[in-house]
Design goal:
7-stranded mixed β-sheet, Rossmann fold, alpha/beta, binds S-adenosylmethionine
């Protein structure tokens, strides 16, 4: 039975194939979907995960996640400062308009979410927003869940900041160039 399922799974497109198909920069500008994410996410794609991505732009990564997380019970959420981003996103996604520089808005939006298995912060890429998002969302993350901060461009302090954030509670921190993956224990 398990063998049959595995054979079926193998025919599914990989995360990187989906990233290329939908043209998110997670593949073409960075290499997250080929190098970092599969090891953390490939098992989860068959389960009813709840995922939040912060930062929508044209919805490319949302279309990738929509096709990648095949379980019909998956719960998918997206935040962006720009309300126009809601147009054309996959119907499984619930969109929230959030200005991540506004801590009050971030906290209020977080309160409306269920507990989460995966958070991907691909929004403003600043220390301030990364920290506000992390503070508001960490308690929402299930044990074993992943908190990912992409495109960490805020200099030398970024890695230190991430470790400090993560030390608030028990967690594993993995840093791969410009992406930080924190697993809640
Ligand atoms: C890099 S793009 C997201 C790309 C998308 N995740 C993908 O891979 O296709 C960043 C997005 O973050 C949003 N953003 C920028 N600053 C923000 C802020 N302060 N609060 C919320 N969203 C913000 C932008 O509107 C933009 O849509």
């Amino acid at each position: 039975m398990i063998q049959e399922h595995r054979a079926k799974w193998k025919r599914l497109p990989t995360l990187d194939e989906l990233a290329i198909k939908h043209q998110t920069d997670k593949s073409h500008l960075h290499t997250y979907t080929s190098t970092v994410y599969p090891q953390f996410l490939d098992q989860a794609r068959y389960f009813p995960v709840s995922l939040l991505e912060i930062g929508v732009l044209h919805g490319a990564s949302l279309r990738m996640w929509d096709e990648y997380f095949i379980h019909p019970g998956a719960k998918l959420f997206a935040w962006d400062i720009n309300p126009e981003c809601e147009q054309g996103i996959p119907s499984r996604f619930t969109f929230q308009e959030v200005e991540c520089l506004n801590e009050g808005q971030v906290k209020a939006a977080a309160r409306k979410l269920p507990n989460l298995d995966v958070v991907v912060d691909d929004g403003a890429h600043s220390v301030l927003t990364a920290k506000a998002n992390f503070e508001a969302l960490w308690d929402k993350l299930n044990s074993g869940g992943l908190y990912i901060i992409e495109d960490v461009k805020f200099g030398r302090h970024s890695k230190i900041a991430a470790v400090i954030f993560a030390k608030k509670t028990r967690s594993e921190v993995h840093i791969y160039g410009e992406v930080i993956v924190v697993r809640k224990i």
